C-alpha cells in the first residue's frame, strides 16, 4: 500500500501521521474550509517527508479562516519547520479577471473582499487547533509582501484563486524554492490559473527555467511541480 499513511515508515512515524489525520478532521469540524482532507494529504505528506539534511521553511499563500494553516502547522511542527503565512487578511483584491466556470463546469466568482479571514480569527483558529508556535503571519497583498521575502523555501502551498495572484506567487516564491522543493496549488480547477502554469514563455522569461512537469494538470484541484535544479 502507498500514500499518506502507508508508505514505508516506522511505527512511530505512522502513529504521528494517524495523529495528524485525526487533528485535521478536528480542524475541519470547527473551521470553515474550502478543501477536503484528501486534497491536503499530498502537501501534508510532502512536509513530513522533507529531508532533515535540507533546510528551508514552509510557505502558505492564501489562508482564508486558517483551516489549511492549522493543518499545515501540525505537519510543520513535526517536521521542525517554520510556516510563513501570507495573506491580505482583507479578502480578495480588486480584480477584473473573467472567471466563469471551473474545469468541471461549476460556477466560480472572486469579487473583491470575498473569502476574508481576519488575522486575529486565523491566529485564534491555529492556536486552538494547530501549532501556533511555528507560524509567522505576513499581512498584505502578495505584490507588497513577497518581493522582500528572503527565506529559502522547502515547500510552498498556494490557495490564491486569482491568476494574477498565482503569477505573483510564482514570480517571487519559485526562485526561493530550494532544489528538490515542491510547489502546490489548490487552484488547479480554475482555467485562468492553469493558463498561468501552462505558459512556457512566462517560465522562461520570468523564472529563467523551462516549464516543469505540472502533476494533476487539467484533472485535479490540487496540482504540483518540483524544482529539480537551481534557477
Descriptive account of the structure:
- With 231 residues, this protein is α/β, with parallel strands linked by helices.
- It has a single domain, classed as Rossmann fold (3-Layer(aba) Sandwich), CATH 3.40.50.150.
- Helix content is 37%, strand content 15%.
- It contains eight helices and six strands.
- Strands 3-2-1-4-5-6 form a six-stranded mixed sheet, sandwiched between helices.
- Helix 6 links the parallel strand 4 and strand 5.
- It is globular, with a radius of gyration of 17 Å.
- The N terminus is likely disordered.
* Basic shape: globular
Order of helices and strands: HHEHEHEHEHEHHE
Please name the fourth-level CATH homologous superfamily: Vaccinia Virus protein VP39
Q: What distance separates the N and C termini?
A: 35 Å
CATH class annotation: Alpha Beta
Helical amount among residues, as a percent range? 25-40%
Judged by helices, strands and strand pairing, the structural class is: alpha/beta
Number of helices: 8
**Can you count the beta strands?**
6
Q: Give the strand line-up of the largest sheet.
A: 3-2-1-4-5-6
